[in-house]
Amino acid sequence: MDHSSAARGATPVYLLTGFLGSGKTTLLRALLRQPAMASTAVVINEFGEIGLDHELVEAVDGETVLLPGGCMCCTVRDDLARTLADLDRRRAQGEVPPFERVIIESTGLADPGPVLQVLLKHGDLLERFALGGVWTTLDAVHAQSQLDAHVESVRQLALADCVVMTKTDLAPFTAPASLAARVRKINPHARMLHVCEGAVDAAELLAQTPSAASGDEPEAMLRGLCQAGPTGHVCGAGCGPHAHAHDGRFRTSSLRFDRPLEWDEVCDWLGGLAFFHGARLLRMKGILNVAGEDRPLAVHGVQHLFHPPTPMERWPDDDRSSRLVFITDGLDEQALRPPFSTA
Hints:
Strand order of the largest sheet: 3-4-5-2-6-1-7-8-9
Shape: globular
Radius of gyration: 20 Å
Protein name: Putative GTP-binding protein YjiA
Structural class: alpha/beta
Function: Zinc chaperone that directly transfers zinc cofactor to target proteins, thereby activating them. Zinc is transferred from the CXCC motif in the GTPase domain to the zinc binding site in target proteins in a process requiring GTP hydrolysis.
Oligomer: single chain
Keywords: Chaperone, Hydrolase, Nucleotide-binding
InterPro entries: CobW-likC_sf, CobW-like_C, CobW/HypB/UreG_nucleotide-bd, P-loop_NTPase, Zinc-reg_GTPase_activator
Distance between the termini: 24 Å
GO molecular function, one term: nucleotide binding
């Protein structure tokens, strides 16, 4: 089995997403001021969106600026793949400072899926970049109504590795707890941080979503992998007959395999899922015990695309079962079942 494309040491890429007005830019500005985020490259759509003028130290060119702490910010060029490839080339040639991670800030109405697919479908990027995680900001004041009205916000939440609940200081007293319960129904595996005015510990946020490329991923990969259940919502006062209509579309399902798996069987199964159900397979991630492999393999995919398996440094405990989590949009759980036994 060839694991060369999942090279250890690849630069982790973090996607910062969230609905309009949910506090992405405020969070990003606060993060970039902290030492833990030194040597970070930030990819945005327009410089004006993040308001960096007062922090500008040096303009490298019309598309790149240098920030305090060795950080760098650039705008998306023709497409994201070209932007990342160009950043890597310029880093190698010494045209921009070295960077240890990349943060991509998406627009408020963007579906995170296509952005994640960029990291999977461009083979030349797989050698140099790896998905670090998805951070989704959720406005504690307005998120309930946004989740009801806009399916994009539910997709952003469903794909999150870490949910950053913002504006908790402005929300009614019971709002954060009610919203947290809804988050758990839609995405039970996401870690959650509560912040106000963008005040979040950057080191803590990075620790919540360690990159598979970092070598520190086993505990994060396994945390909660076998606690998934059908999505839904426990309704309370104020929930009308059409409230939360989007939530039920999204389902988190988990599978466990107690025996070592044959890699060819896994490839055929996952390939079939991608071919027949890729449009509704929002995300897959897991840890596999593959026959003939000494170490566990981390796997993840987005819709039609699956990342090459990444060998993990170690098993975190004595449990050698394979575990996978699927986040789907309107896909029956039975469709995920493999043709081979899960026993």
